[in-house]
Design a protein that fits this description.
The structure holds 2 protein chains of 2 kinds. By secondary structure, chain A is mainly α. Helix content of chain A is about 80%, strand content about 0%. Chain A has 2 domains: about 70 residues, no CATH class; about 170 residues, Orthogonal Bundle (MetI-like fold), CATH 1.10.3720.10. Chain A is globular. Chain B has a single domain, classed as MetI-like fold (Orthogonal Bundle). Helices cover about 70% and strands about 0% of the residues of chain B. Chain B has 13 helices and 2 strands, in the order H-H-E-E-H-H-H-H-H-H-H-H-H-H-H. In chain B, strands 1-2 form a two-stranded antiparallel ribbon. In chain B, helix 2 crosses helix 13, helix 6 crosses helix 8 and helix 12 packs antiparallel against helix 13. Chain B is globular and about 75 Å long. In chain B, about 40% of the residues are buried. Classes of the chains: A mainly alpha, B mainly alpha. Chains A and B meet through helix 2, helix 5, helix 6, helix 7 and helix 10 of A and helix 1, helix 2, helix 4, helix 5 and helix 6 of B.
Chain lengths: ~290, ~325
């Protein structure tokens, strides 16, 4: 160790750099620990009994009661039923958002038609409005058509994803050359074929970003499901999870097992796709300004 | 497989030049030298309108119309069942005199400041550090972004457990050091601190990623020139990095203003245990944000008109704050 340490400073410029780089890494590692700690502590709580958590000082090691806690969760709430609801709504929403948004974004980015500016401007304006302005009339509308309590009431409003169109529009404008579309047109490709066979394959990175974005948002959504799914036996995972917390505060380890089961799948899926997603997120943000 | 038939190319000249039905036409490449009518009927654009119609139908039904309908509702008295009654500005007059509404505004603003300021400063600091290191960049980015994809409900339950007055981890650790338990979830200020910590934890990584993208877009030559002129790292940061990043900082400030003022799920889940009493937002309603108050008025008390009035008054507040932030963030440019 000492040999290495004394050998390094000999190389001029490195000497000044290294301590600063090390300090940067140390601060970053502390930040990572803070951002990851809740997951670790949730696992610790979920694998111990409630008595162990309540002890002072509390147990800081993983226990062996995870399965038992999970069984309690499954006995208390309809975990898999609500998870299935969430998965269904999130999948349907994501697929439809991708289709609807990319088709509209393609049209806005590559074609001119009367009213284009007005329609697109309205969309941008409404992207800035807080969603809660619309939530009450949305609920009234849902109760008028008798959809309150139904899963389709969840998916429908989120299909109008203004952000998705705005974002894909930016991407298509720069990423799909006009010449290519012209060439396809001369070869006899109609409007829809230009969209489906030329534009869609070219914007795949943008679509995969939007897919993750829409899916995560839909999975984590809480306010709208809370409002519109009035039937206690038929809710999404997040609402069910919040219910678990209300009724059973005395059984922390069980609640934490539920939190773990609800949060972990998404975190794992995200970690797998994270590289492309983060690249996509930054692209949109920097272009957006 | 089904390659375009030969007749396809034979059709082209006719389609481009002939007086036949005008098909879709890319914006920047109008066909040249043809005797086409200057203005085409709206019907000839039916493909474009058809393509955007799914979005705009849903948008009209669930965004456009509802926003104005809620403004209309704010001038009515309605419980959702009986007949609507026009009451003019009465809802807003009541709002003006409602101490709970002003309490909720105060709570929202305090939580917003307590969460946004550390979030944005922390994010800028972490992004600068992350930009300066070479190794493990990808790992840091993902690990710091993960809080943002975790559900608010899960995070709020976790924070509730960790800051619990009697059995929470924080008080247990303080107890080991000999500090008596701190009432995190019953003191009006500490409630806001806990909610703000939660939001800071969730949003720092997101803003960091955006700042990082901005930093990476700054060409290295600028820094080299600054170095040549003898500027130290701190001076470089404040006189070069910050001014160049101004548009991105503005973007994050606006997004954080819109997001940060809309805190709802955090206090709702955190204090759902106390749902036995009619008031949301925890002890003393110290965690009652404006949107939570809106939720309580509209959906628990079925006072639709008042709920709509709250949410519109709140919207005006957001606009004012965004405008103020815009002024503050862009002011330096002229100086």
């Amino acid at each position: 160790m000492t040999a290495v340490d004394t050998a390094r400073p000999a190389t001029g410029g490195r000497r000044l750099r290294r301590p600063r780089g090390l300090a940067a890494h140390m601060i970053l590692v502390v930040a990572v620990l803070i951002s990851v700690f809740p997951f670790a502590w949730t696992i610790i709580m979920a694998t111990n009994t409630t008595q162990d958590i309540y002890k002072s000082p509390p147990k800081f090691t993983f226990g062996s009661h995870l399965l038992e806690n999970i069984r309690h969760v499954l006995n208390t709430i309809d975990f898999f039923g609500s998870m299935l609801n969430t998965v269904m709504v999130a999948t349907v929403t994501t697929v439809l958002v991708l289709f609807i948004d990319s088709l509209a974004a393609f049209t806005f980015a590559k074609f001119d038609f009367p009213g284009r500016k007005l329609l697109f401007g309205t969309l941008l304006l409404f992207m800035m409005l807080p969603l809660q302005l619309a939530i009450l009339p949305q609920f009234i509308l849902m109760s008028k058509i008798g959809w309150v309590g139904m899963l389709k009431a969840l998916a429908l409003p989120s299909l109008a994803n203004a952000f998705g169109i705005f974002w894909l529009h930016q991407y298509i404008q720069n990423g799909v050359p006009d010449e290519l579309l012209d060439a396809a047109r001369i070869d006899g490709a109609g409007f829809f074929r230009q969209y489906w066979n030329i534009a869609l394959p070219m914007i795949r990175p943008a679509l995969s970003f939007l897919a993750i974005y829409a899916f995560v948002n839909c999975w984590n959504d809480y306010v709208w499901p809370l409002v519109v799914l009035t039937n206690p036996g038929h809710v999404t995972l997040q609402v069910e999870l919040a219910q678990l917390n209300v009724g059973h505060t005395t059984d922390y380890s069980m609640v934490m097992a539920g939190v773990l089961m609800a949060a972990l799948p998404l975190v794992i899926v995200f970690s797998i796709f994270a590289r492309g997603f983060i690249a996509g997120a930054t692209e949109g943000a920097v272009q957006g300004t | 497989m089904s390659s375009p038939p030969v007749t396809g190319s034979a059709e082209v000249p006719q389609r481009l030049g002939g007086p036949g039905p005008a098909r879709f036409r890319p914006r920047r490449t109008p066909p040249t030298g043809t005797a086409r009518p200057r203005r085409r009927g709206l019907l000839s654009y039916w493909r474009q309108y058809l393509a955007i119609s799914p979005f705009y139908l849903i948008f009209a039904a669930f965004s456009f119309f509802p926003v104005f309908y809620s403004l209309y509702l704010a001038f009515q008295r309605w419980d959702g069942m009986g007949t609507m009654q026009f009451v003019g500005l009465q809802q807003f007059r009541f709002l003006w005199d409602d101490p709970v509404f002003w309490l909720s505004i105060r709570n929202t603003l305090v939580i917003w400041v307590l969460s946004t300021v550390p979030t944005l400063f922390g994010a800028l600091m972490l992004a600068t550090l992350l930009h300066s290191v070479r190794r493990f960049k990808g790992f840091y980015r993902i690990a710091l972004y993960v809080p943002n994809v975790t559900s608010i409900v899960a995070v709020a339950i976790f924070f509730g457990a960790v800051f619990s007055n009697n059995f929470g981890l924080v008080n247990a650790i303080l107890g080991v050091v000999g500090i008596s338990p701190i009432p995190w979830l019953s003191n009006p200020w500490l409630i806001k601190v806990v909610i703000s910590l939660l939001m800071t934890w969730q949003w720092t990584g997101y803003n960091m990623i955006i700042y990082l993208a901005g930093l990476q877009a700054i060409p290295n030559s600028i820094y080299e020139a600054a170095k040549m002129d003898g500027a130290g790292p701190i001076r470089t940061f404040f006189q070069i990095t910050i001014p160049i990043m101004r548009p991105i900082i503005l973007f994050t400030v606006i997004i954080s203003t819109i997001n940060g003022l809309q805190s709802f799920s955090e206090p709702q889940v955190l204090f759902a245990n106390n749902a036995a009493n009619a008031n949301l937002g925890g002890p003393g309603q110290a965690g009652l944000t404006t949107l939570l108050y809106f939720y309580q008025s509209a959906f628990l008390n079925n006072d639709y008109g008042y709920g709509a009035a709250i949410v519109w008054a709140f919207f005006v507040l957001i606009i004012i704050l965004v405008a103020v932030n815009w002024r503050i963030t862009t002011r330096g440019r002229k100086a």
